[in-house]
Design brief:
single chain; alpha/beta; Rossmann fold; seven-stranded mixed β-sheet; 8 helices
Length: about 210
């Protein structure tokens, strides 16, 4: 029968057909490893802020130090807009601030809460899963933002409208387009600019009158 002819191939041919192709095995294993790594990392590198695509890029130790140095003489509640893994909020809490973080990525928020608990500052920190464009920041005296150039003009207008005159704003990596910084700390990716709300609100008011 034709079926029997197919089943009775020479042993040497059958043997060659069952040998594993190690090249394909290695490619398959590599692909699986990449997919597993992506699945584990994706929650942490996904956009943190819905209106603009901001990948999670952790602040360096120097950046954290620069932020705290700029806010050293100022007290009151602090908010980190797009707080990532919570390192700015946690460091601020250790310096005596009541510190809050807003972050759209739930994985990062849960991780931040865990780190705050682990480092003993969970009673002085809060982390919220939220699109910060929907949050009013009027209650905060200290605002920290790691933004991208595309968002700075819109954020400038939002904070100008909401913040009280005694507030301070620290922008990291990218400055605000219209405001004049009171102080600057660091260079390159570690650069940070300190803005006085009284100054930029007065400037905006004068501009509207002309």
């Amino acid at each position: 029968m034709s079926a029997g002819a197919t089943a009775c191939e020479p042993a040497s041919e059958a043997g060659r057909g069952t040998k594993p192709n190690w090249g394909l095995v290695l490619v398959g294993a590599s692909g699986a490893a990449v997919l597993a790594l992506y699945a584990a990392a994706a929650p942490f590198v996904a956009p943190a802020l819905r209106r603009f695509c901001l990948p999670f890029i952790p602040a360096t130790p120097v950046q954290v130090e620069n932020v705290l140095q700029l806010l050293n003489s100022h007290r009151g509640a602090l908010v980190d807009i797009g707080s990532g893994d919570g390192r700015i909020v946690i460091a601020a809490a250790k310096q005596g601030f009541r510190a809050v973080g807003y972050e759209l990525n739930p994985w990062l928020v849960w991780y931040s809460r865990y780190r705050a608990w682990q480092q003993g500052v969970h009673r002085h920190t809060r982390f919220y899963i939220s699109d910060f464009w929907k949050v009013n920041f009027s209650e905060y005296s200290n605002v920290v933002i790691f933004g991208v150039p595309q968002m700075m003009e819109s954020l400038e207008k939002k904070l100008q409208k909401e913040l009280k005159n005694d507030a301070r704003v620290v922008a990291c990596r990218f400055p605000f387009p219209s405001w004049i910084a009171e102080h600057e700390s660091g260079k390159g990716i570690d650069a940070a600019w300190l803005y006085n709300a009284k100054s930029f609100k007065t400037t905006a008011k004068e501009g509207n009158q002309h």
